[in-house]
């Protein structure tokens, strides 16, 4: 792929390397309680050392395009799924911009008016923005920087502006923008060629998939337009790339933090190799069956782990210093035991609001695996219900239960064979998965839509474990020996 380098201005060094870790996926409104793993490191300009020992080797990834020639049917089917569009590459974004249409009317002009990315965070400040900082930018000291904002200059050009408190621009540097998400929310990032990695640009929009309206949250609440995620300062390489792209090359990144996103991954998407493992050796020697992972050779637990390497919520990656890097499951390969690579977030049975609380029910996104294991479908695989090689006409990924190879169906059709007359309409299925319903008296314990426990209490509310089954030990029941 031809990619233009926007900046060849030599080394732009942020002595201030900030790693603002936050659970999972950037869906935490500022007023919600975050988990206890938030860290802001290197605040005073010290280098943050990265753990370099015991880091698993990087596999022989080649990217999905290398599979297309021999597996064109699977490739085309995969292209119909959300996995293939988990990222907006710089080229995709620029195309949107040139077409004057970044999803339903939001243009980059909206973004350049006042939106930017303050990269200095002070959790004690209501604005989230700390006082001023000093940087060394391209060898020059830039003092009293109040924020760093990304501006669209027009055409394919963006720049990062280092500004003083009064808005005066102290320094500028060219950057490249890429993003996450196409379905409901989008987050954009910048490649700052600075030796500090790829940074989150504070900009998110939420999309109501039923209404097709970019100005509503997932839960249908109006956001008043673009929702700018002002309090986010995250390094994409450490916090996001492992789940939204495939084959994030962590060792290469440690060696050369200058690499930009497209240079760091095998695919700017959840590609074939995220589920089938690194495929370079297989592509070179396809008849050797040991060189690629097939789901039909896996146990249910292994199948689910392969999905949950991304679709679950963790607090540490066991191969790294958790102070520095922990958000993904780097080191995990399909077929592995996920617990060998990550620590899961712990439940707080019957206690205060947390991502997992009260009855152990998942309260946030990314917890389908936990949810599922608390209910009557604990021994099910994600792929008993979900298709991964194709989506239906509504853009949803559902398969006919038990079909092999997978037969794509509607959501209703996936439940109907066993629950006809009960869970066979969109309304009835979404009702039984709506973790918010019926908790009006205890709103702090209510969950989110699309909970996967498939378990209801006497009042018909979605729950995890009933109180009499809460384990004494603060851990997931299946992890208690
Ligand atoms: C040069 C052609 C070629 C390329 C390139 C190739 N494959 Fe294959 N692949 C094959 C052939 C042939 C088989 C069937 C081998 C067999 O039946 O034992 C196969 C089998 C598979 C299987 C099923 C294995 C099983 O045990 O049933 C998977 C999964 C797979 N390939 C994935 C991939 C992925 C992912 C890539 C890209 C990284 C890829 N392949 C690239 C030719 C190729
Ligand atoms: C542990 C894996 C993981 C990590 C780390 C992760 N994500 Fe995600 N993200 C997911 C999964 C899985 C989904 C899709 C399911 C969902 O909606 O939660 C998703 C969905 C999203 C979406 C919505 C996409 C759409 O089309 O609607 C956005 C935006 C997003 N993530 C941004 C981020 C950002 C920003 C970061 C880093 C700060 C991040 N994610 C880190 C796994 C992850
Ligand atoms: C490398 C990380 C990764 C792996 C592995 C992965 N997913 Fe995903 N998945 C994502 C991300 C990221 C998205 C969101 C894509 C988007 O919309 O931007 C997603 C989206 C989905 C969706 C679409 C959800 C919707 O909003 O309709 C389903 C269903 C899904 N994944 C199921 C699975 C299953 C089942 C597996 C295992 C066979 C799996 N995923 C493996 C990261 C992953
Ligand atoms: C019993 C069937 C079933 C199983 C098993 C199942 N799901 Fe789902 N999943 C659903 C249904 C139904 C929905 C709701 C879709 C909707 O309302 O549009 C859903 C929604 C989702 C979504 C989209 C959520 C969103 O916010 O759009 C993701 C991602 C997902 N499931 C991932 C998984 C993963 C990962 C597993 C395995 C740990 C799994 N599912 C197991 C039935 C299932
Ligand atoms: C989200 C995970 C995921 C992704 C991404 C994915 N696959 Fe698969 N793949 C699966 C699962 C699960 C099956 C088994 C589906 C079934 O039961 O029919 C499968 C089946 C296959 C098969 C049939 C042989 C077998 O193993 O059962 C081939 C070949 C294959 N995939 C190749 C690819 C290629 C090539 C890509 C990328 C273009 C790709 N897959 C992307 C999960 C994935
Ligand atoms: C292959 C058959 C099968 C399919 C497909 C299936 N289920 Fe189930 N479901 C069961 C069985 C069996 C039970 C366990 C009944 C029990 O333990 O009382 C169950 C239990 C449930 C329960 C808890 C008991 C109840 O009736 O309230 C819910 C909720 C549920 N399923 C929802 C769904 C939804 C939603 C889907 C589709 C996404 C689905 N199921 C798909 C077989 C199935």
Automatic annotation (TrEMBL):
Keyword Signal among UniProt keywords: yes
Signal peptide (residue range): 1-26
Start and end residues of each stretch annotated as Disordered: 28-59
Comp. bias intervals (Acidic residues): 44-54
Domain Cytochrome c-552/4: 66-90, 237-277
Gene3D superfamilies tied to this protein: Flavocytochrome C3, Chain A
Keywords assigned: Signal
Biased composition (Low complexity): 31-43
PANTHER family cross-referenced by the UniProt entry: C-TYPE POLYHEME CYTOCHROME OMCC (PTHR35038:SF8), DISSIMILATORY SULFITE REDUCTASE SIRA (PTHR35038)
Annotated protein name in UniProt: Cytochrome c-552/4 domain-containing protein
Species name: Dethiobacter alkaliphilus AHT 1
């Amino acid at each position: 792929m031809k990619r233009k380098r926007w900046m060849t201005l030599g080394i732009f060094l942020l002595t201030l390397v900030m790693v603002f870790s936050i659970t999972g996926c950037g869906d935490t409104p500022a007023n919600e309680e975050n988990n206890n793993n938030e860290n802001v490191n290197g605040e005073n300009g010290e280098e943050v050392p990265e753990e370099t020992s015991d880091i698993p080797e990087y596999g022989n990834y080649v990217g999905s395009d290398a599979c297309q020639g021999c597996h064109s049917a699977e490739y085309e089917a995969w292209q119909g799924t959300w996995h293939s569009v988990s990222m907006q590459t710089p080229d995709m974004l620029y195309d949107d911009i040139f077409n004057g249409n970044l999803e339903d009317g939001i243009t980059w002009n909206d973004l350049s008016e006042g939106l930017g990315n303050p990269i200095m965070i002070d959790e004690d400040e209501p604005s989230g923005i700390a006082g001023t900082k000093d940087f060394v930018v391209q060898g020059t000291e830039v003092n009293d920087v109040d924020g760093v904002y990304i501006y669209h200059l027009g055409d394919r050009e963006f720049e990062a502006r280092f500004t003083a408190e009064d808005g005066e621009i102290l320094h500028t540097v060219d950057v490249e923008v890429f993003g996450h998400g196409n379905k409901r929310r989008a987050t954009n990032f910048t490649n700052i060629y600075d030796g500090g990695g790829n940074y989150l640009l504070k900009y998110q929009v939420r999309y109501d998939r039923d209404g097709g309206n970019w100005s509503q949250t997932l839960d249908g609440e109006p956001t008043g337009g673009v929702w700018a995620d002002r309090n986010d300062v995250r390094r994409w390489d450490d916090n996001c790339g492992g789940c939204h792209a495939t084959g994030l090359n962590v060792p290469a990144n440690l060696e050369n933090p200058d690499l930009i996103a497209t240079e760091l991954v095998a695919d700017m998407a959840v590609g074939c190799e995220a589920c089938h493992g690194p495929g370079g050796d297989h592509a070179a020697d396809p008849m050797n069956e040991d060189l690629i992972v097939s789901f039909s050779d896996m146990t249910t637990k292994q199948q689910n782990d392969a999905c949950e390497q991304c679709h679950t919520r963790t607090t540490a990656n066991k191969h790294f210093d958790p102070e520095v890097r922990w958000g993904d499951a780097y080191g995990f390969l399909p077929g592995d035991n996920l617990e060998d690579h990550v620590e899961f977030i712990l439940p707080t049975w019957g206690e205060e609001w947390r991502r997992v609380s009260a009855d152990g029910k998942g309260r946030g996104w990314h917890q389908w695996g936990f949810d599922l294991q608390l209910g009557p479908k604990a021994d099910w695989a994600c792929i008993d219900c979900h298709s991964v090689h194709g989506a239906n006409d509504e853009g949803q990924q559902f398969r006919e239960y038990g079909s092999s190879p997978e037969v794509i169906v509607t959501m209703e059709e996936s439940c109907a064979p066993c629950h006809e007359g009960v869970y066979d309409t969109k309304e009835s299925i979404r009702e039984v998965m709506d973790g918010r319903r019926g908790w009006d008296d205890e709103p702090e314990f209510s969950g989110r839509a699309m909970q996967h426990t498939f378990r209801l209490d006497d009042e018909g509310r979605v729950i995890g474990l009933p109180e009499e089954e809460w384990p004494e030990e603060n851990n997931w029941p299946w992890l208690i020996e």
